[in-house]
Write a structure and sequence with these properties.
965 residues, alpha/beta, 5-stranded parallel sheet, 3-stranded antiparallel sheet, 45 helices
Length: 965
Amino acid sequence: MAPEPVRFAVLGPVRVERAGAEAASGRPQERALLALLLVRAGQPVAVSEIVDVLWGRRPPDSAVNVIRRHVGSLRRMLEPGLPNRAAGRWLIRDAGGYRLVVDAGSLDLLRFRRLRDEARRTGADAPPSPGRVVELLTEALGLWRGPVVGAGLPEEVRERAGFPAVDRERPAALRDAADAALRAGTPAAVLPLLRQAAVDAPLDEPLLARLVLTLAAAGHEAEALSTYRTARARLADELGIDPGADLRDAHAAVVRGAGAAPPAPSRAETAHVSVLASSAPPAPATAVPAQLPHDLPTFTGRRAELERVLALLDSPGGPGDAVPPTGTVVISAIGGMAGIGKTTLAVHWAHRVADRYPDGQLYVNLRGFAPSGAVMRAGEAVRVFLDALGVPPERVPHGVDAQAALYRSLLAGRRFLVLLDNARDTEQVRPLLPGTPGCLTIVTSRDQLSGLVSAHGAHTLALRPLDTEQARVFLERRLGAARLTGEARAVAEIAALCGGLPLALACVAARAAAHPDFPLSAIAAELRAAHGSLDAFSRTDASANVGAVFSWSLGAVSAEAARLFPLLALHPGPDFSVSATAALAALPVRRTRSLLAELADVHLAGEPAPGRYALHDLLRAHAAELLEDQVPDAGREAATERLYAYYVHSAHLTEPLLAPYADPMPPGPPPAGVRAEPLVGHEQSLAWLAAEYPVLLAVVGAAARSGRDRSACLLAWSLEPFLDRRGHWHDWATVQRIALDAALRLAEPAYEARGLRALARAEGRLGLYGSARPRLDRALGLFTDLGDDIGRADTHRSIGWTRDQEGDLPGALHHNRLAMELFSTSGRHAAYASVRNSVGWYHALLGEYPQALSHCQEALVLLQRLGDRYGQAATWHTLAYAHHHLGRHPNALVGYGHSLALYRELGVPYLEACTLVHIGDTHAAMGDHRAAHEVLQQALTLLITLGHPDADGVRERIAASERCG
């Protein structure tokens, strides 16, 4: 029986319609969860992210269990009568989280995006069809039942979920609709939408400019002029600014009687249209990347600089009346000064113009001047962007040049904003630049990046320290005007002592806010008397001692928090969790959380995500100086050992949970004061690894650089199941190269053998079989010399997989048989059961179906006894495959059904899709082409969502089933 049709709406209040009637969408948190899943539009949402969205920085201990209950309630709302704990049809487990199965026919957001994209393609046709574009866009905009998605949800939930980025898609589409209506001569078609949008967003100048032009084109010149006057007054009253170029130009056009003329497209827009017209078929609908960091609500100052960068987009040209060919702008500070507000300005500017780039906003911190030395490689940054753009790992080419070419191809003809923060030099930035106009790239750096200017026409903007008046406004915005009354001299002294650096001023403001009864003159006196040093970042042309500001801020926290602060310099990652910090300081987790909150309250640490903390480069450098001065060598060594041990032992716990057949090398007892993350089960392991992923990569490298080769190896090897399962194969290869180098330095054959095998596995996933084969042969020889039968068996399995990929199925079967024989006497029951299924699989691929059934039936019994669900799923699949080819189609459907349920439960969408394809083959073999068509459609939806090339083959199967039925 086919499930009842369900339709979802999120463009406005969240609504669910089942069988034509509206269904109750549950309690507030259930509605928030449903809205989050809908906005992700068929993409999986990790449990850890759901926790962050629903509760923010203070989730309850029962958060994961509460989410499970919410999921159960939503499933029963969508499918009444669904038994408890049943997976259901619409809300499924996927990739360590949950996913709603939706498409453009069932979700208004996806339908809106499909209509919008069709309008873009229509506008790119030769000759263009503006009338049809208007029809498509007005139909798309008619799907919105309010100005924001998830209307009615708490604003903090919407902010944490990233909904504002989706909100911006509506005004962007409306601007395109207005432009098309003016070109088509049908302004009345969009006038009601524009009027309502002006009410919803009365300070949106690009929209107001379209409203003025459209009113005039529709014969309402007086209303157009009145709209301009109202907008100008509101901008002056609320923002203290004059109208920008868009609005001024629209007003001028009305005054001279040219209101009906559509605005001429910019060169960037023209390039967008021409490239789009010749591009390949559009990629499958994925969530629009919206990676910009949070914009500071207290942003102030930098008005002249902001006007200058906005002018690059608002005027026909920038400085010199020449729009830079790539839209690239560089923001650099004088003398390489840190803490001067480059990132803050860049982020604020990016948010101001984000709606002009509806295809997405990409952000990466390149860590160009990180005191830890962990500079991000250009290839790593490109892969971060490819992942954000929805490229499956198996489609990421090998080599930075090829990856950068794919990245540029994906951005060609589209409008993206790319923010490259904290770049080291031009070479690091170059592979990340879009190749065609239409995109804006903002780069921040302490370097002048002269190569970017000369080779790519970038504009530069040098930030200067805030002057006394700007510092006064900065403090007034945070403390209120009344607090500064009569304190002009103190404000000037504070500005001078802080060197005009916003970061230092923020620390002072935090101290003053914490003591509202202290006059600013007393604050200035405290600051003057403070002692500190930050020579590495001092400016020779000022008497400011920024280190003194930070040291003075440390005086405002408890002695225990002040002792913790220097230790934070030892952490090599981009951010750190409370648990990791507790290990670093040998403190209880609860106490550590309070101490980090103390430091964050006085701006000595940031909290970029709930429960995760980070240090600005200046603060990290100051912490490092204090560490050198205050903590003896033995204390630093002990803290570092504790930190790395926390990661090694926590990652070690995940390995058997993700891969029960694995043979991890035990790390030994942890040092005193270290408690590994208390991970229980597959789901928690994946959530922890996903949250710590960039940190774990950094720790592997830092451990190796600091001579802790054993820790580097153990951590890298524990990450193998996660990196493989998630498809992070390039990073897998990178950390395994580090681990192999570390193993060779240890000069221990057991470490060398494991290092060779681990790197070979990663290279095999990347298709580098020529490199993988000799490493595996060398590893097999070492394990043989060591008398390590388990190591030999695991290596035979790896060799077998490589032979399979090279088309040598008999060779693959041979090596898996050797592995099975070795495991049979080792006591490694999970590994024996897993490889026995592999032997059965290769028998099946060779057409030896009775042998396949014999091996897999015995493997399944063992795997069920061991509770290895991943192994059970694979074995059920092999059994079903053999039954299918023996003509036992009902048996095959039973086996595939078990496999499908397990893959859905485990959240492995690609293998779920493969199983659905085989189920479709079995239905077709039984003559049930309708059933085959239904499951193949499900498989196709999954593969399109993944962006997997197998989707083309499934389309061909669907076409064949339609011809047959």
